[in-house]
């Protein structure tokens, strides 16, 4: 255990401990209210050490999103395969990330985006522009249709996350992932490649 | 205009002014942070007058949701008609409410539900149990399937609201309502009556 005012051991354990504390604090308090100080306290390290490892709070926030998964490459991977099953694979990916430890960070990001314009812009730009549109392009969809199709996919993915993980509406909250993959996947598929 | 420390005229204008201020304050600050004092200041009335007209903050919050629309009867109305166009009518109703002045209150409720367990429970119980399940029952759907179908409808409706009004992802944010009715309606229809 690293003492709060002790030496600064430059090891992976400390970095990992800060990341885990950041996930917890951001999830509980959102991006705005979750302070570096609160994260440092939770990790039992000096606040300066948090800055040393991650720089700004924004970078730390992104780090909690990137670790342990890289959403961009995961989505690219999920969409690689039979075109008419891309929707099913995308929903399966989303649920596997949200049901994993990374889901806590994703939830924090979604919560922040609901009340904070900066976080909303981050989520909008990062998820939609960087991930979904690139992914839609990968499916060989008309570039003129890609923005609408990816935004529609975003409505279903965001809503699934809100209902399952935030509002916790049954039976969606407790349903096995594969049941939701089977029921929601075809709707995402229509947005991706279907007749609109 | 009613002065903050003036007499207490028991008229509709004052009540309406408080309601409008409450919608604005809840939308900007959420349910938790939006105080009776802030609402009274915005409406230029004494805080005691807010309590006089609406009782608790919870009751005021519900009043901002109920006025000027009654979601329950609107949904029942929207689902009354050809069964295979219920999805389209439901999306049209949702967009017409969110695009109206009542949308500000709906947005406040959604934001509160994202960060506050009380508001999440309220939204869950009110929207899903009272509105959607009753509405699904109205379509003559098997009672055993109704909870899953209504929760799935909730994923699409909640996600549409989040992407159009909170994250403001284009082109969904600026799309004419009827374009979204045509593109999203069939997906809601599948959740309501389609093969899952």
TrEMBL record, chains A, B:
Residue range(s) of DNA binding per entry: 35-54
Record has Transmembrane as a keyword: no
Tagged with keyword DNA-binding: yes
Gene3D superfamilies named among the record's database cross-references: Homeodomain-like, Tetracycline Repressor, domain 2
Domain HTH tetR-type: 12-72
Pfam families documented for this protein: TetR_C_16 (PF17920), TetR_N (PF00440)
Keywords: DNA-binding
Protein name: TetR family transcriptional regulator
């Amino acid at each position: 255990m690293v003492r709060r005012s002790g030496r600064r051991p430059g090891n992976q354990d400390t970095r990992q401990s800060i990341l885990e504390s950041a996930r917890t604090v951001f999830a509980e308090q959102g991006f705005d209210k979750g302070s570096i100080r609160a994260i440092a306290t939770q990790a039992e390290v000096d606040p300066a050490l948090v800055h040393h490892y991650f720089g700004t709070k924004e970078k730390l926030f992104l780090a909690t999103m990137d670790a342990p998964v890289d959403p961009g490459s995961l989505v690219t991977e999920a969409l690689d395969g039979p075109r008419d099953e891309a929707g099913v694979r995308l929903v399966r990916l989303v649920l596997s990330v949200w049901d994993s430890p990374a889901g806590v960070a994703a939830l924090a990001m979604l919560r922040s985006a609901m009340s904070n314009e900066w976080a909303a812009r981050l989520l909008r730009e990062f998820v939609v522009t960087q991930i979904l549109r690139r992914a839609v392009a990968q499916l060989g969809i008309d570039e003129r249709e890609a923005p609408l199709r990816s935004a529609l996919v975003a409505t279903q993915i965001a809503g699934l996350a809100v209902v399952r993980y935030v509002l916790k509406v049954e039976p969606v909250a407790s349903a096995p992932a594969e049941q939701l993959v089977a029921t929601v996947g075809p709707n995402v598929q229509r947005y991706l490649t279907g007749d609109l």
